[in-house]
Amino acid sequence: MEVKKDILWRVYVAFLGIVVFSLLILGRAVYIQQVQGAYWREQAKEQQQKFVEIDAQRGTIYSEDGRMLSTSTPYFDIYIDFAAEGLRDKNGKRFEDNLDSLSYGLSQLFPEKSKASWRRELKTGYQRKNRYYLLKKNLTFQEYKQLRSLPLVREGKNKSGFIADVKDKRLNPFGLLANRTIGLSREYMDSGGVMRSMNVGLEKTYDDQLRGESGKRLMRKIAAGVFAPVDGSEIEPQNGKDIITTLDVNIQDIAENALENVLVANECEYGTCVVMEVATGKIKAIANLSRRDDGSYWENFNYAIQASEPGSTFKLATMLSLLEDQLITLQQHIDLEGGSWNVNGRTVYDTEDHGTDATVKHAFELSSNVGMAKLAMTYYGKNPTRFVNHIKKLRFDQQTGIDLMGESRPVVKTPKSKTWSSTSLPWMSFGYEVLVSPLQTLMLYNAVANDGKMMKPYLVNAVLENGAKVKENQPEVLEEAICSNKTLKLLKECLEGVCTDGTAAELMRGAPYKAACKTGTALMANGPNGYADKIYQSSFAGYFPANNPQYSCIVVIRNKPHAPVYYGAKIAGPVFKEIADKLYAQHADQNIRQIALKKDSSNYQYAGATEDIKAVMEKLKMKYRDSAKADEWSRLAVANDQSVLNKRTVTNNIMPDMKGMGLKDALFLLENRKLKVAFHGRGKVISQSIEPGTYVNSHQTVMLELN
Length: 707
Fold this sequence. Notes:
By secondary structure, the protein is an alpha+beta fold. 35% of the residues lie in helices and 26% in strands. It is extended, with a radius of gyration of 36 Å. Mean pLDDT is 82; it is low at 185-191, 193-198 and 591-604.
């Protein structure tokens, strides 16, 4: 009896445990279904489908004359959904009927595989019903266009199963040209496996304008690890805005070639060159080249906005201070001490012995360190703050504000600075113990050229959205007058004297124009080695033509250790002169061409819709020879003193020749091809950013110049 009770007790306990356990499971099921149901249903859905971002097409960066400096080019990844209903229609008859011809077409387009290999690959994918099968990656637009013309593919996505995934790659059509200033826009994988973007230059500064807004695409899981897009479930991206820079491709090319020639010939470490439009502050060219291990040069750092000791080009600021305070005259004499002068325990040296007696003007023309140091100590030694205040008024203590990220901060010492010493003032007078960028120095020279008005340098003219300006930058005056007109006249006299009687006289001799400039040669410290490596920085700053300044320019070059030639006039000077020579010749040629155009009948060409031109000619009762016949578009030109109407062929996906067309016809023709149009001026089209005959795709931007 006791045994029976014991057994029953155990059975009851076990039964009770089962009941409790069942209730717990039931309660958990109810809780999951009723309370957490929405969450888990969403989780299940995410396992089967997901949204992925569609990158917006990044905006294009143009030069001022409408040429592309940086643009996005589409590339295509091609997939096949072998389980598509249209492909397997009628027991696969469509696939079988096109298999051989498609395989042959693929072998012609992609010859790395034979017809038999392509046939086998397609057949295997079809038999296995592969979903979203990767056929080919990174097709160019031309290859994609040819692929779409192949048998089966041309029947469309639903019937062929062919799916194109479009992505953009950033290209700089002009390669090295202004590469660092334009910048980079590329993605990279960080150490944590996260995709990040890396931008510099204008690409970084205007990234929020250029990148646009990403869209979304719903992707459904069709196999393990394979997702295919769901038709009709896309949120279209908003393409980025375009940037019109102030850069001139021709001037940029001249500047880079001139700089590279000198760097290569002298094995220099690096160099920078900036050309600015005097009246506006527009940067027309900015070149930065540094030597690589293999001896070649590349743009990988923007030295134009990095602060360093400027050397003798800074002497213009010293002369301005002395003249503006009416402490000196250009004709007063100064003892140059034979090229060396001791001040407060340190010795100031000139690069050459210029004797003893010289006028202040000639001391500047000869770039005498001793002369500048003695003048600074004589007139500002008891009140150095007065000198420093002039330097600050010239904005050497603040960044230029140019629309480029990465500009370094300048350093201008004051008597209150911890590093100020008894020799700071004399050394500052000839460009040491102060750190300023080449662009800051150029602002001063440009202001002198611009009759005392200091302009803010800038690189972007306008931001365009769908061809319309949404933002436009105008020239900005930072200082209405950096000094009095009397001082300005004397400074110009000094700078012109450098080119006729000073350190640049030999270089500028024989030039067909007058220039105003200043040379500079500074000994640079090299890390822990200090000044022992004898590394010199050569510089040359000025403007031209001196009697009607159009451009200002600065060249700064860092030489190799113990370089045999390092003076500013010998290293940086030739770069300045080559740029000035070619720009002067270019403007002279333009004047000749403008005169010639008035006599050139090609200037009176007109283009547009054929019927419109004929109607106008008949209305005016003007005779013409009709060579256009029934063509929709044509051009009216003069040949042998007779008006001739010539046909103008217009083809889809090919950029037409727009020259001579009015804006209305040009917009109709281009926008019907889904191209974006930006234009400058009014009248007839005289130039276009995309050359006639070039393949184009929708949403590209075309810049038209009207006159």
